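We treat protein structure as text, and this decision shapes the records that our systems exchange. This encoding replaces a full spatial description with a residue-level series of whole-number codes. Below, we set out a record of this kind in full and without editing:
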Amino acid sequence: LKGLLGSVEKWKSIEDMKQIFWYKKTTISEYVTEHWKEDDFYGYQFLNGINPNVIKKCSELPPNFPVTEEMVKPFLEEDSSLEEEMEDGKIFLYDQKKMDGIPARDYNGEPLHVSAGLCLFYLNPEDKLMPIAIQLHQQPSEDNPIFLPSDSETDWLLAKMFIKNADFIDHEAVHHLMSTHFLAEVYTMAALRCFPVIHPLYKLLIPHFRYTIYINTEGRESLFGKNGVLRISSLGYDGMMELMRRALSEMTYSSLCLPENITARGLESIPNFYYRDDGLKLWNIINSFVTAIVEYYYPSNSEVQKDTELQEWINEIFTHAFLRNTASGFPGCFHTVEEVIKFITMVIFTVTAQHAAVNNGQFDYNSWVPNGSLLLHQPPPTTKGESSMETILETLPNVGESVNFAAMTQMLSEKYTDVVPLGAYPEERFDEPAPKQMIKDFQEELSYLSEEITSRNSELKVPYTYLNPTEIENSITI
């Protein structure tokens, strides 16, 4: 990294930050460095960037987010109102309330700040998702103004950066580590403890758990160890643990099942949402494959109920992953074939497609630290009209920290030489002709989808590649 690692100097200009990338660039990472300040690209990332599971349709403003008609009218379609746009399903909300009140870590004896903020988005007539109002703390007050696109360029940029800072921390701790890596570890451990190797569900699942325990063991040290990169985030180790604890207590089974997740957030029809489009097709392809295999070995519900190893597996997961929280909707036992199919579909989707969606674009979108940083040095602005480019440079991580974050995003977006793509089963664990044919059918469906996605991407200015089956690994290995 050209001697930049460990430097405590501040950046002299945003342009200087490009020095980090003399050795590695991608088409998208270069696009991000040029377009990160633009509002339409900012909104686009909440749909197709690395954290596509947070915004939801807003049909009524939260009482603690007092956005008025006058504030946002200039950014809506002419002769329209906020109320009308909400009724038309054109207003969306980002709300980081679960982070509220978590203390940030100390930096050189002074506490850092994390903004558990809210951001309102508007789907404009050109089908672009635009941020139109940002409040940086949950409780409205005089020193917590609502920032607008009509504010000074640096005020608006700072507000967007603080939302992105909270979003990146939430992404890394909750949507990436906890909801894919750490849940996958529980599924894996339970399978190793409960299923004998000749069990058909062991044969189905074990290829999807390859290297997961290894990478999690390594990751805990490299990300959370003494000099771990997530320890130097604004929240630090204790704050990230508390964030995961809160997120786990709120987690529901339906939030991990993509069709239900999309419906619950009211995002069925928002345009240009490629994560949804590709993800739902993948969910259905995986579901068809799992249905064929499970129904082959479990012709009726009574086989499910009598399979003590299967029941032990789901009970261990319910106990150790979801802490027996019945309100979460996660099953503690299986009564029907249908329940088994749904749960295994969710498991395979999580460790393949969902991990790819939240992992593989990290270098593309967040190696350019101004677009998304885990650490901001200055507190969020409390008044308008007092910021400058100097404020932004003081707020961003220093040279050494920026390099550290960029290196992390590169490491997490790497590919091993022995990568196994989704749907490849090189070990051939099944002996019977029927499941072998089911695997072939699965691979064919994935191949058709890959062609479809490649064809669509060829016409996009910013292609969405993370859910192309050829880009998805068969397990969490990095």
